[in-house]
Amino acid sequence: MDGERGGVECFYAYESVRLARAHPSILPGGLDPRQHLQAPGTRAALFDGLVAKHRRVLEALAGRPDQRRAAYESSVRALRRFASDDTLPRPPIEHLAALLGRIFEQTAPGADPDATGVLRLLYASESVELARMGGYSNPAANMTDAAAHLAWAGQRPYWQVIQDLKSKHRFQFDRQRRLDPASWPEHSASTATRLAQWGQTPDDLRSVPSAVTSWATVCDRAGREGGPDGVWFLLDRLIRYTATGLLGRARLSRVRTT
Q1: Contact by Cβ (8 Å): 96, 79
Q2: CA distance 125 to 112
Q3: Could you read off the pLDDT of 3-45 as tens digits, one per residue?
Q4: Is 123 exposed, middle or buried (0-12, 13-18, 19+ CB in 10 A)?
């Protein structure tokens, strides 16, 4: 067994057993790691299998937002532990993280068309900030007219709005790092601060004060631990949590007032 294949098999077995233990009613059986270590198929097939298992869990918990978020966070922690394993290829790990993020978004408990107004405000606000930095190949992305971004978001499903916002952020993240490496950390800290001010940060980051200096420290720590990928992982979490958190809060607000 070569190192790469062996690492992927171990990861597949670990995650399969962890999911089966955590969610026995959704994924019954599968508590013996040996059965997973002997799973046939290519590396890609094993990752596809993991995606399918995570999808089943997140979709089954779509109506229970607290449990669903806890399940997603457990998966993120597992990914981060294995990301430092030299026997595991980094791109598939990141690919799985991206896929889980998309599943998380597309099964958000706030997936209610009438509850997306606050998400559109987030999208427009961030789009204007990003547009001021410029550089997008799509002229519309360089517009600093908030109304234009609001209108665009109002014509799309919520998950597409989130996906586009993340794409814009990723482009600017890479561009600022390339154009001005010295001030790139400041860009990341400013982005994190703006997102945190919406009040929907992950539990482990809620104690961070809403100040650029505080988030600069958090971004610096993420960079020292994981390099640029570590900083992007942090920002990606903030974008996702802010967007889905605002959706859920808007939906709960509508329930309380009707």
Answers
A1: yes
A2: 21
A3: 444 566 777 888 888 889 989 999 988 888 888 877 766 766 7
A4: buried
Rg (CA), the chain: 19
Q: How far apart are CA 66 and CA 49, in angstroms?
A: 25
Q: How far apart are CA 122 and CA 119, in angstroms?
A: 5
Q: Which two tokens stand for residue 229?
A: 């990928």
- Residue 219's φ and ψ, nearest 5 degrees, are -65, -40
Angle at 217 between CA 238 and CA 211, to 5 degrees: 70
Q: CB of 220 within 8 A of CB of 173? A: no
* pTM passes above 0.70: no
Cα 213 to Cα 71, 125, 136, 217, distances in angstroms:
31, 21, 28, 6
Dihedral (CA of 152, 155, 156, 157) sign: positive
Which of 116-125, 157-166, 226-235, 244-253 is predicted least confidently? Answer: 244-253
